[in-house]
Amino acid sequence: MLVLTVLLAPSVPAATIGAGDSLSCAVTAAGGVKCWGVGYAQPTYGLPVDVPGLTSGVTAVATGFLTKCALTTAGGVKCWGRNEYGQLGDGTTTERTTPVDVSGLTSGVKAITVGGMHSCALTTAGGVKCWGYNSLGELGDSSTTQRLTPVDVSGLTSGVANISAGSYHTCAVTTAGGLKCWGDNESGKLGDNTTTRRLTPVDVVGLTSGVSAVAASGAHTCALTTAGGVKCWGFAYYGSLGDGTYTDHKVPADVLGITSGMTSLATRSDYSYATVCAGSASGVKCWGYNDMSQVGDGTTTTRNAPVDVQGLGGGVTELAVGSQHVCARMTDGGVKCWGANGYGQLGDGTTTRRTAPVSVIGLTPPISSSDCLFNYVEKTYPSYFAPAGATSATAMDYYYRAYSTTTSSLGIASRDNHLYYIGPVSNNTLADLGIVSGWLSTAGCQ
Question: Residue 303 contacts by C-beta under 8 Å, 6 or more apart in sequence?
Answer without folding.
Answer: 239, 286, 287, 288, 290, 295, 297
